[in-house]
Amino acid sequence: MKKTTLLATAAALGLGVSPAMAQDYPTQPINMVVPFAAGGPTDTVTRLVAQAMSRELGQQVVVENVGGAGGTLGAARVAQANPDGYTLLLHHIGMSTAPTLYRELPFDPLTDFEYVGLVTEVPMVFVGRNDLEVDTLEDAIAWIKEEGENVMYANAGIGAASHLCGLLFMSEIDTPMTTIPYQGTGPAITDLMGGQVDFLCDQTTNTTNQIRDGSIKPFAVTIPDRLDSLPDVPTTAESSLPGFEITIWHGIYAPSGTPDEVVERLTAALQVALQDETVAERFADLGTAPSPQEDATPEALRAKVESEIELWRPLIEAAGVYAN
Ligand code: ASP
Questions:
Q1: CA proximity to 161, closest of 211, 126, 136
Q2: Half-sphere exposure of 28 (CA within 13 A, CB side)
Q3: Which tops the pLDDT comparison, 275 or 317?
Q4: Each residue's pLDDT tens digit, 27-53
Q5: How far is residue 205's CA from residue 287's CA, in Å, rounded to a whole number?
Q6: Neighbouring C-beta atoms of residue 18, cutoff 10 Å
Q7: What is the Å distance from ligand 1's center to 207 Cα?
Q8: Which protein residue's CA is at the shortest distance from atom 3 of ligand 1?
Q9: What is the DSSP string of 116-141?
Q10: Using one digit for the tens of pLDDT, what is the confidence trace for 143-199?
Q11: Is residue 116's pLDDT more than 90?
Q12: Ligand 1 mutation pick, 34, 92, 288, max ligand atoms within 8 A of CB
């Protein structure tokens, strides 16, 4: 049954979210869907923020991983959920690239959600398996050009950050690699550490610890300046890819029709969570930072989703990559 029909039926039966219920919100645990596998970068960010939001809301915010199809399965699940504030989504840039990448997308990012606010923006880093015989990005590019489709590039499916970074990279060096999709880069990193795949561009929230302990090889971060958290890793600009920049923003969403009072409560809790010392410290250690308060708002997230749909559309169309 469609959500609108469900809502009409619920209202007819007197089961809607009444203003009084919205005022008491939340009275039970909240489910926060991560549209990727456990242990990956979105999962890491979500668990830190969910814990801090739980403290503020006085209810558990329980993280649920619904991976697959580059994050679109989990997003669709939340789009169709009951709009009562007890099912939320924490998703990244994929919210804005999916409308162009997926001809048949089972949700509309602009009409199927209420927007809670931006959470963080995370740099990416090119990494390879530890026993690659190259140490710089220049040499890695030369090796990839030589090996071409023998090189196994892991990603988290079409529309994932790792897919977008790989897409731009392959177009920049004009060499396709073989892409191996996972339900998230959590399992992709495990395979990279095991040497089953060769190369990956992933967020620092999923690569910093492995770079520090030497279990994967870093080549370059995708931002203009080196990170304090990974000071020895050069930037793309220092490594023969000037202008190659990509960061991955994340936001929190509720199904459309969630009462305004509930969304306001969630935005307020997000803002408190982003000022939490542990969140700030963990984020900094992983190469990122909480979004500023003025961005942790529904208006800022909507503006971001809208502008990034326009930003990515021509890039995706030029690459000619579609999921269905
Ligand atoms: N965000 C994905 C994950 O959490 C990875 C990606 O987008 O590349 O696994």
A1: 126
A2: 6
A3: 275
A4: 999 999 999 999 999 999 999 999 999
A5: 7
A6: 11
A7: 11
A8: 184
A9: EEEEEEEEEEEEEETT-S--SHHHHH
A10: 999 999 999 999 998 889 999 999 999 999 999 999 999 999 999 999 999 999 999
A11: yes
A12: 92
Q: CA-CA distance, 144 to 140, in Å (whole number)?
A: 6
CA count, 13 A, side-chain hemisphere, 196: 11
Residue 16 has pLDDT above 80, yes or no: no
Q: What structural domains does the chain harbor?
A: 3-122+248-319 (3.40.190.150), 124-239 (3.40.190.10)
Residues with CB under 6 A from ligand 1: 36-37, 40-43, 92, 156, 160-162, 184-186
Beta bridge partners of 112: none
CB contact at 8 A, 71 and 160: yes
Closest CA relative to residue 233, chosen from 246, 249, 222, 241: 222
Tokens representing residue 64 in the block: 């649920």
